[in-house]
Design brief:
By secondary structure, the protein is α/β, with parallel strands linked by helices. It is 42% helix and 19% strand. The chain folds into two domains: 243 residues, Dihydropteroate synthase-like (TIM Barrel, Alpha-Beta Barrel), CATH 3.20.20; 93 residues, Sulfite Reductase Hemoprotein, domain 1, CATH 3.30.413. Helix 2 packs parallel to helix 3.
Length: 361
């Protein structure tokens, strides 16, 4: 049982490459490259960094045929499923499938006629890949805007279900849905309403969330609230930032809710007048050193040698500072005193020992 007693909504299962989405499969973390896809070298380099950070599905933009063709070579260099993001030109979706994409992200509303959409679903069936119907608040059909008077949650859901019905009529059922707005209230309302109406797996996120701090706050609240209610089968945090930060934030959201564990959990005090060490710098050094670690332990970095071990008793290992010196502790028990300049090295050394002894979750 998780700390929030989360009961996840049961959905159908689809597969993007070797990653299952929906049902009881782990909630998959994904991101999107911001390199020109046709720049194969740059795109592969970024995807490899994302893989190292834990990204499980990657999406690339396919604005032209050169980008679609590049997928074949990119796929040879990466190990996670690749989704092709296509708008307006159905031929690009077909080409992306042909060149090895593990899934397509389209908005049928801007692809064109039913004949063109059928050509896309036929290609997806031929290559056995799923399609994500992505409805964004900025891409709603004109007739739905007129009907609802604005881009409402109800309008977004009606758009998504209309497009699901279209794909169903074409005998295509390997579908995933997303409903994203740039504000939290509409995003929450749309996903809650949609979740009550379908068992199709849901891709959850807040679109155009902004830069690092506003984006993390919006995504953590929006995605976190939905996950806490059991809604969501895969997530993407959208930041105007290095996409590695998206993956890191996504795993922190999952970790905070007790849904998934990846990498160490670091707890640290905000400091007060008793702090006599450079705790901000120490915490940053430890975070950077463990950025790609998959070790699932709790690490405490505390500013006060008197209260630190007690406040962080549940941590597997930690340090607490004093004037010119500090202590290393495990499970609240002091192991040894260490000069302040050696605190970070001593902590990381002990963590490396634990990495060899403790299995990952």
């Amino acid at each position: 049982m998780t700390p929030f007693s989360i009961k996840r909504k049961k959905t159908k299962v689809i597969c993007a490459g070797n990653v299952k989405i929906g049902g009881t499969a782990p909630i998959a973390v994904q991101s999107m490259t911001n390199t020109p896809t046709e720049n194969i070298r740059a795109t592969v380099a970024q995807i490899k960094r994302l893989e190292e950070a834990g990204c499980e599905i990657i999406r690339v933009a396919v604005p032209g045929m050169a980008a679609a063709e590049a997928i074949a070579k990119i796929k040879q260099e990466i190990s996670i499923p690749l989704i092709a993001d296509v708008h307006f030109d159905y031929r690009l979706a077909i080409a992306a499938a042909k060149y090895g994409a593990n899934g397509l992200r389209i908005n049928p509303g801007n692809i064109g006629s039913k004949k063109k959409i059928k050509a896309v679903t036929d290609a997806a069936q031929t290559f056995n890949i799923p399609i994500r119907i992505g409805v964004n608040s900025g891409s709603l059909e004109k007739d739905l805007l007129e009907k609802h008077g604005a881009v409402t949650a109800e309008a977004m859901v009606e758009s998504a279900l209309r497009q699901v019905d279209l794909l169903d009529s074409l005998k295509f059922h390997a579908i995933k849905l997303s409903l994203k707005a740039s504000d939290i209230p509409r995003t929450l309302d749309a996903y809650r309403l949609l979740s009550c109406k379908t068992d199709i797996p849901l891709h959850v996120g807040v679109t155009e969330a902004g830069g690092l701090f506003p984006g993390i706050v919006k995504s953590s609240i929006g995605i976190g609230m939905l996950l806490a209610e059991g809604i969501g089968d895969t997530i993407r945090v959208s930041l105007t930032r290095d996409p590695v930060e998206e993956v890191r934030t996504a795993f922190e959201i999952l970790k905070a809710l007790g849904i998934r564990k990846r990498g160490p959990e670091i707890i640290s005090c905000p400091t007060c007048g008793r702090c006599r060490i450079d705790l901000f710098n120490i915490a940053e050094q430890v975070e950077k050193a463990l950025l790609t670690s998959s070790l699932t332990i709790k690490i405490a970095i505390m500013g006060c040698a008197v209260n630190g071990p007690g406040e962080a008793r549940e941590a597997d290992i930690g340090i607490a500072g004093g004037k010119g010196t500090g202590i290393l502790f495990k499970k609240g028990k002091i192991i040894k005193k260490i000069p302040q300049a050696e605190l970070v090295d001593a902590l990381l050394k002990e963590i490396m020992k634990l990495e060899g002894d403790k299995p990952n979750d």
